[in-house]
Amino acid sequence: MEGLGAKLGMGLPARLFYIALRISPPNIRSRMWKSLYQRMARSHKDPEFKFMNYGFKDNYPPTLSPEDEPNRIFIQLYHMNVRDTDLEGKEILEIGSGRGGGASWISKTMNPKSLVALDYSEKAVNRCIEWYSSQENLIFLEGNAENLPFEDETFDVVYNVESSHCYGNIPAFLDETYRVLRKGGNFCWTDMRDQKTMDEMHEQFLHSGFSIESRKEITDNVLEALSVIDTDRRELIRNSAPPSLRKSFETFGGVPGTPIFSALETGKIGYFRYLLSKP
After folding, report:
1. pLDDT of the residue at 9
2. For the chain, how many structural domains are there in total?
3. Range of 98's domain?
4. pLDDT for position 34
5. What DSSP letter does each residue of 205-240 carry, written as one string?
């Protein structure tokens, strides 16, 4: 894994790595993403850096505690994704938990019975275990979204935030999500796709057995959020990433002027949100 990332990502300009991600076969693309996120977990050790998502500029913002206010723009993406689902007293799974900020906020503010946060980066999971060990209803596990380590119908709600674009086998991910979700449960999903791929994924949702409760494109809200956090994100990357990785981290952080931001801005990529249920 690490060798592949070094060859394809860390020694090349970010723009070439971005192109390589787009043209690589799904299994290779998944390995490239894993290598990058392992490297990010090693490089970014600051416990204040708990969110990697692009954020969401919300017209109906949630009330936050003073402690959470500095991360409002990132928390709002999680809130938008799950706010139409009742989480209180439920058993919840997050697939692709990253640095754990979203799972931590949901577990302490929405009162689930339990929240299992799963990620395929061992180093990220270990950091989360260290940072959030005081939260009794929150567990972090290493695992693969395409082969979930849980029994059938284990969870009442599953959510996935800005993670699935890294997966090599989307049908397997959706089938596994459907399998571990209880009947009547919800799957809350949000991520970016080009329109053709999103149309394909819409059909994949249905093929896996989900009912679509609602769907919406939220690209404008995400672009606004990326513009709001631009200065702080550049400063974070400059202060915490090795010089050889800064351009790559800016690209994957959606910094204005990078290929991903430009693709969102021009409509080549859209950001979408789906609320699904298991009949």
Report:
1. 35
2. 1
3. 1-279
4. 54
5. HHHHT-EEEEEEE-HHHHHHHHHHTHHHHHHHHHHH
